[in-house]
User: What shape does this take?
Amino acid sequence: MHSNKIPKEISLPALLLDLPAFEENCRQIASHGNEKKIRIATKSIRSVEVLKRILDSNTMFQGLMCYSPEEAIFLIEKGLDDILIAYPCWEKKALSDISILNSKGKNIICMVDALEHVDHLNHIAKETKGNFYLCIDVDMSTTFFNLHFGVRRSPLKDSTAVLELARKIKQSQNLELIGIMGYEAQIAGLGDKVPSQRMKNSVIEFLKKKSIKEVEERRNKVVHALRQEGFSLPLVNGGGTGSLHSTTKEDVVTEVAVGSGFYSPKLFDYYNGFLYKPALFYALPIVRKPAPNIYTCHGGGYVSSGPPGKDKQPQPVYPVGGKLLDLEGAGEVQTPVYYENVTLEIGDAVIFRAAKAGEICERFQEIVCISNQQVVGRHKTYRGEGVCFI
Assistant: This one.
């Protein structure tokens, strides 16, 4: 998108995909995969048709990483397969369905990081006379000077703990260990070029460099320990959009997960060396002019998840120069935007970028594909399909 000129056939508010930018991102991500399989993180996309578009764009893209068992079943029903559920889950009905689907030839992989997970899945598999493919989530956070650097995910921090769980899995004929996942969130999901925090950026950059080495060593030790005990591990998953350059260099890694890079949301402006183009936007209509230089848009309170702060707010990008008001921000039903040297009218559009990628799709029923200021397609979001997995 290069202006706020919206084709007349689009009703506002609208979610817009800059198709040339999106397609360029697909090409760039594939080219930086270092010949590793790239699994698409669905939470950053949230549209079946867009997922299929990515998969069809390059043979490097294989498989999906989703965020709930119900979502995995939905994607299977839509004709997709090779699905890794990235988080442990407990919901018995959905897991029972997955066990049966796997017994019929589908490939849905469940995540575990505790003995309780394994016992629960084993019980369901016996009840359903089905089976589960399992992936062990290994903690990839690091600690420096008593500082926890990373996210709170798996409790499994070394090969000893992972082996204990793997042996438990091996005891059941209804369970099969497929591989391990280690998500280095402190590298993949943490910006190191955030405005107005130069000192913190320097610290994060330093910690990232040290963490990359430690993560590689830990992942190697876990994989080698498992293989020495006879586990084949066809799947060793790591990384994310922000760590693609480092994770793909690891010999033991068989695949990397990428999601946000396809849309390239605002938070990724704050990464050194980030290569991708903003591709997903939303447009709001101006419905009021309450004061000189202030234009109030309808809706727009699409603040992203994570620690609260201005970096999680959406950003008005077209016309250039727009600013949210400090005392209002992006509101549930209206969003005022300040422009110093731009004259707009009621009915005009203001175009925004969300801070994160897929979350904005929960607010719209379709993604309108734009190329050369023309509508060239419309893709339903999960919401447009009538489903919600959060």
